């Protein structure tokens, strides 16, 4: 009886094996292909940038002098024969390109004409660092940007001359995963008073906690028009005002100051609010970004 059972098991196993061998798909090759994902162009660029400077930890709502968060740039807008900075922020992602939100380059005030990099103080009083002011040669909005629906709110700014990478000016990496980290940091030049539109000359920072999309939709009351999967929500410190359009939400590794950008601030409810900000999710636009920045 035992011999018969063993024989039947062997016959069954042989039949299954024969079916597998007749399959047109090579299971081993399929597994290897799935396991070996091709490295993205943005990931290759990040590897070439290498680690950033060692971060200095300060417990303050303002970024301190000394070289932290070197990816932040301020967009400059022509006003009365001068350039006004601080209305919108951006992120340096290569020598030639800054990433920002589309509504900052398509607003009623007109498009920006300059970027300022390498300083945390737009007036130059705190860090006493000579900023890099670079003209903008071209602005590329996402082709599907919709102002009314507030989706695809992302744009690339092409610089007229390459940024000079220094202790104070460094590019950020791009976050490539679909899952949003629970905890991030936001930096940018934003409003400092609830009652008016005064913007901070000093770079602001705040912790960001990701918010469940269902909860965020309920908070904004968008039952008829849900937030898009190319967006995510996050709350910042309630003692801080809105860190500003185009400001980055990012992560860092240990004491490495090289930021990996997860999102850009698209819109929010302003100072002292517990209502989440809505961010443009960078990982949803990697193909578009890479086709322009690293063709």
Automatic annotation (TrEMBL):
Offer an example of a GO molecular function term for this protein. Answer: serine-type endopeptidase activity
Name the source's superkingdom: Eukaryota
Q: Which GO terms describe its biological process?
A: proteolysis
Q: Which UniProt keywords apply?
A: Disulfide bond, Glycoprotein, Signal
Record has Signal as a keyword: yes
- Where's the Peptidase S1 domain? 64-294
Keyword Repressor: yes or no? no
Region forming the signal peptide: 1-18
> Which family is it part of?
Belongs to the peptidase S1 family. CLIP subfamily.
Protein name in the entry: Trypsin
Q: Which organism is it from?
A: Popillia japonica
